[in-house]
Amino acid sequence: MSCVLGIETTCDETACAVVEDGRIVRSNVVRTQIDLHQKYGGVVPEIAARAHIEWLNDIVATAMQIAGVTAEDLSGIAVANCPGLVGCLLVGVSAAKALAFAWDKPLVGVNHVHAHLYAGCLIPPQGRDNASAVWPDPPALPALGLVISGGHTTLYEVQRFDSLRRLGSTIDDAVGEAFDKVAAILQLGYPGGPLVENLARDGRANEVKFPLSLLGKQSLDFSFSGIKTAVLYHVNGQGGAQRTSADLTPQQRADTAAAFQRVVAEILEVKVRRAMEVMTPRSLIVGGGVSANACIRGCLQRVADAAKIPLYLPPMAYCTDNAAMIAGLGSQLLESGGRADLDLSAIATA
Length: 350
Ligand code: KG4
Ligand code: ZN
What we know:
Elements: E1 3-8, E2 13-20, E3 24-32, H1 34-37, H2 45-67, E4 76-82, H3 86-103, E5 107-111, H4 112-118, H5 125-129, E6 143-148, E7 153-160, E8 163-169, H6 175-185, H7 192-200, H8 225-236, H9 250-279, E9 283-287, H10 294-307, E10 311-312, H11 324-335
Parallel strand pairs: 1-4, 4-5, 6-9, 9-10
Antiparallel strand pairs: 1-2, 2-3, 6-7, 7-8
The protein binds 5'-O-[(R)-(carboxyoxy)(hydroxy)phosphoryl]adenosine and zinc ion (ZN).
The site of 5'-O-[(R)-(carboxyoxy)(hydroxy)phosphoryl]adenosine has 20 residues, from α6 and α7.
């Protein structure tokens, strides 16, 4: 049995987890900083980094206690070292190096975006304890991977989890960023994705038409900035803020949210279908914060069903940022010989 400790501090969640044999989550502790950043309407990097420094030691200790492991039981330490806010990354990377050195354990750096894809392979603790639960085998490879998060919207060909080939990516906003900006236009608050989804529940998606931006017939890239601008004009009026979302009726606001969510889901669906024609995957794996969205989950399930391949979606707790996905992918990397030295860098872009 192998137990890997994972550390995640790329943005505004301070997280630590222990994962057994690359899949079974023994503990997954996430402390969100939402309340620290809410009044600024977005993440303030300096505040985020300072909170990571204050909280991380306790969170590591708690994750190990819940998992029932001591340093001796660990087979390695995995840390998200890219991409992210550099001051935040540095906190996790420094802590992981110190622990690896003090406990004499192998260290590995994990790409946070790639780890989002791995989240769909994890088995939650209640799954392990439920003897009658049947957990699917790991995804058959090659798989088509789609990461939809606050910072990334990317399609990958997954030959192995340590070798991903990028097929397409956003040329402007990430899909989660578009949700957050639409939430700001509708004056819903931060982070916007779940708030837009909630509002959309009462909305009629066909009442408003936003552009289906596909970037040409073959493209596997994404663009969401045009839709965001279309929402802005729809709510505020053309040529400056003549009105705000407060001037819309509750039904009009809900219709706007539903129409936006629908067009985003349609774009993701079209791009996934196109990518399936390019690489004939044996499974579809989706991860990232936006994969928590029920409308988008349903839409992707229909695409996978039509292609007759299994869809791997993370359990809700592993959609947004967490350290279980870092420990899980880290286990795979360690097993295939991945090792970092104590000069492992924090890299803001990847
Ligand atoms: O993966 P994540 O936690 O962080 C990054 O790596 O970026 O993703 C956060 C993003 C935010 O933009 C948030 O608004 C979005 O995921 N999100 C959602 C939902 N839950 C989180 N977007 C749409 N619907 C949701 N239910
Ligand atoms: Zn993330």
